[in-house]
């Protein structure tokens, strides 16, 4: 009976360690996402102020349209960069979770076939 108890204790310990590792990986990904979102929000506010000032300097409809087209292109590039960073963070988190889930569970746990 002592042997079975020891095996169950080891299995429980391995499960708790795996859970802890997954929790750390998940919180790490959340921290990176929060930092990314905060930086994106800060950048957006700064750019909107700058863009508004630039639009006020436009003197004719042609310059307004030209400036607006440039701003759209700039916003598109930033949105693409943001999406790429989100994808990278998601992939890193997924890889971390996969490594944890890929750990071997003891095969000689009593009662398992």
Report on the architecture of this protein.
By secondary structure, this protein is mainly α. The protein has one domain (2-100). 85% of the residues lie in helices and 0% in strands. It has 2 helices and no strands. Helix 1 packs antiparallel against helix 2. The chain starts with a helix and ends in a 12-residue tail after the last helix.
Task: Estimate the global geometry from the Cα principal axes.
Answer: rod-shaped
Number of strands: 0
The radius of gyration over CA amounts to 26 Å
The oligomeric state is single chain
Coarse structural class: mainly alpha
Largest sheet: none
Work out the helicity level: over 70%
Question: Alpha-carbon distance between the termini?
Answer: 18 Å
Task: Name the helix and strand elements from N-terminus to C-terminus, one letter apiece.
Answer: HH
- Show unreliable segments: none
Question: What's the tally of helices?
Answer: 2
Hey, roughly how much beta strand do the residues contain? under 5%
Average pLDDT confidence is: 87
Count of distinct structural domains: 1
């Amino acid at each position: 009976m002592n042997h079975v108890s020891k095996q169950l204790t080891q299995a429980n310990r391995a499960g708790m360690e795996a859970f802890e590792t997954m929790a750390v990986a998940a919180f790490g990904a959340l921290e990176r996402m929060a930092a990314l979102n905060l930086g994106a929000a800060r950048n957006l506010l700064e750019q909107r102020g700058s863009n508004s000032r630039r639009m006020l300097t436009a003197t004719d409809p042609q310059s307004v349209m030209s400036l607006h087209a440039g701003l759209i292109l700039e916003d598109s590039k930033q949105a693409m960069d943001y999406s790429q960073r989100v994808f990278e963070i998601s992939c890193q988190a997924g890889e971390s979770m996969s490594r944890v889930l890929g750990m071997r569970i003891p095969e000689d746990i009593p009662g398992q076939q």
